[in-house]
Amino acid sequence: MEKREELYAGKAKSVYKTDDPDLLIMHFRDDTSAFDGKKLEQLERKGKVNNIFNAFIMEKLKAAGIPTHFEKRLSDRESLVKCMDMMPVECVVRNISAGSLVRRLGVEEGLELNPPTYELFLKNDAQGDPMINESLCLTFGWATEAQLAEMKTLTYKVNGVLKQLFDEAGMLLVDYKLEFGVFKGEVVLGDEFSPDGCRLWDKSTREKLDKDRFRQGLGGVVEAYEEVGRRLGIQFD
């Protein structure tokens, strides 16, 4: 597999073309950002930890029958993924109240949400990733009705798999975001799943083990990510 020119550079990952038009190389950097890029730092080992963590989760999801863009981990910081037509929509599931839900509705943090909520957001940093709905997606062509239905189905299926996985490891899956694309006509899970894009709390103490440690200046960000991985049985070295 030949790595070629950079196709895209996001907040924490870079994507490169390969000699196969159907495959890309995703490189995880140490960059860490919050508040739409207003807070930005480099955290040593974070790229390696997130790449290994993501590979573990994607394999679990694939085993559960969820189609993903993940092909294989190439190295500590790089993975091979399918080249997809990404939809600019973030699918968010919330099992426990936290973050923007608390700020928007004025509800208490830590409430169990039954059933879990499902929300859509436009992936647009300049506009602050605003909340959207299915009607807007159809009007502006961000996704079709069939794609939206499949994204919702897959997002809840991911919730069932990962909520149990983290629970068995002594953690609460508070909320998370997923991004999807289309590969050869099929809706496929893309991007990554790591503590960067979800909230995870210790089940007993409710200690935060995710990116909120960076957002809130709690420190020990990468160490918390490694602790989550350790509980799941992930080896980082």
Order of helices and strands: EEEEEHEEEHEEHHEEEHH
Provide the CATH topology of the largest domain.
D-amino Acid Aminotransferase, Chain A, domain 1
CATH homologous superfamily descriptor of the largest domain? ATP-grasp fold, B domain
Tally of DSSP β-strands: 13
Structural class: alpha+beta
**CA-atom Rg in angstroms:** 17 Å
Question: Number of helix segments?
Answer: 6
Summarize the entry for a quick read.
It is built from six helices and 13 strands.
Q: Can you describe this structure?
A:
This protein is α+β, with helices and mostly antiparallel strands. It has two domains: 3-82, Phosphorylase Kinase, domain 1; 86-219, 2-Layer Sandwich (D-amino Acid Aminotransferase, Chain A, domain 1). Helices cover 30% and strands 35% of the residues. The chain is built from six helices and 13 strands. The chain has helices at residues 46-63, 99-105, 134-140, 145-168, 212-215, 221-232, and strands at 3-9, 13-18, 23-28, 31-34, 39-42, 70-73, 78-82, 85-96, 112-122, 131-132, 171-183, 186-189, 198-202. Strands 8, 9, 10, 11, 12 and 13 form a six-stranded antiparallel beta sheet that branches. The chain has a five-stranded antiparallel beta sheet with strand order 1-2-3-7-6. Strands 4-5 form a two-stranded antiparallel sheet. β1 and β2 (13-18) form a beta hairpin. The longest helix has 24 residues, at 145-168. The chain is globular and about 50 Å long.
